[in-house]
């Protein structure tokens, strides 16, 4: 999710000011995506420049309230109806790390997998505890949003553990990799004390 569309989605509920948007954004995502107020205001400036929001007059406390425009509503509707493609997501560092470990010399892939599995199981335990302590069907819409984010994180952690099990089994079936080839430049280098 982009911050831009998250803010537009919140403004589709009605006018809001910057600190309000930051608090509601973090509440909806269970603080898994912390925002600083500078990000909120810079995003609002760009949305205003693009004609997707308008800034109203300052209220009694000097806060500028922003309102979404019709163009902004159209933009956020399109965003809701556009599927998220896997390629749009950040690169998976864990997959890249394991791919590099499999090809790198002197790396114990099983140890890399076990280290990650321990960390992921710890995270899964903490997330499951959070879910158990929360109401099954919260009354507050923000709490419902947070529960969905929490469950998404649990599903991802469970899938990661299954994938790590697969990686471990795959590497075990493949056996030990062949010894790394010595580059020609090193192989041809004269030994110490020898003459060429």
Distance between the termini: 63 Å
Helix content: 55-70%
Could you spell the SSE succession in H and E letters? Answer: HEHHEEHHHHH
Characterize the quaternary organization of these chains.
Answer: single chain
Largest sheet: 3 strands, antiparallel
Radius of gyration: 25 Å
Query: What is the overall shape?
Result: elongated
Count up the helices.
Answer: 8
* Structure summary, number of beta strands: 3
Q: Kindly state the mean pLDDT as a whole number?
A: 85
Helix and strand content put the structural class at mainly alpha
Task: Tell me what the structure shows.
With 196 residues, the chain is mostly helical. Helices cover 61% and strands 7% of the residues. Strands 1-3-2 form a three-stranded antiparallel β-sheet. A hairpin with a 5-residue loop joins strand 2 (53-58) and strand 3 (64-68). Helix 1 (3-11) crosses helix 2 and helix 2 (18-28) packs across helix 3 (37-49). The longest helix is centred in the C-terminal third of the chain and has 34 residues, at 141-174. The radius of gyration is 25 Å and the shape is elongated. The termini are far apart.
How would you sum up this structure in a few lines?
It contains 8 helices and 3 strands; from the N terminus they run αβααββααααα. The chain is mainly α and 196 residues long. It has a 3-stranded antiparallel sheet.
Topology:
Layout: H1 3-11, E1 16-17, H2 18-28, H3 37-49, E2 53-58, E3 64-68, H4 70-81, H5 93-103, H6 109-133, H7 141-174, H8 184-187
Antiparallel strand pairs: 1-3, 2-3
């Amino acid at each position: 999710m982009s911050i831009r569309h998250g803010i537009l989605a919140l403004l589709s509920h009605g006018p809001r000011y910057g600190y309000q948007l930051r608090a509601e954004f973090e509440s909806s995502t269970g603080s898994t995506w912390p925002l600083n107020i500078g990000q909120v205001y810079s995003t609002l400036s760009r949305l205003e420049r693009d004609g997707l929001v308008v800034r109203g007059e300052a209220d009694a406390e000097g806060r500028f309230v922003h309102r979404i425009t019709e163009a902004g509503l159209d933009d956020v509707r399109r965003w809701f109806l556009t599927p998220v493609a896997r390629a749009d997501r950040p690169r998976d560092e864990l997959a890249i790390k394991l791919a590099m470990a499999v090809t790198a010399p002197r790396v114990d892939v099983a140890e890399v997998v076990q280290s990650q599995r321990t960390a992921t199981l710890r995270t899964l335990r903490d997330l499951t505890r959070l879910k158990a302590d929360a109401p099954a069907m919260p009354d507050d819409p923000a709490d419902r949003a947070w529960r969905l984010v929490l469950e998404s994180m649990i599903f991802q952690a469970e899938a990661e553990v299954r994938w790590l099990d697969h990686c471990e089994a795959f590497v075990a079936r493949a056996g030990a990799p062949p010894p790394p080839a010595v580059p020609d430049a090193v192989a041809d280098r004269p030994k110490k004390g020898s003459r060429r």
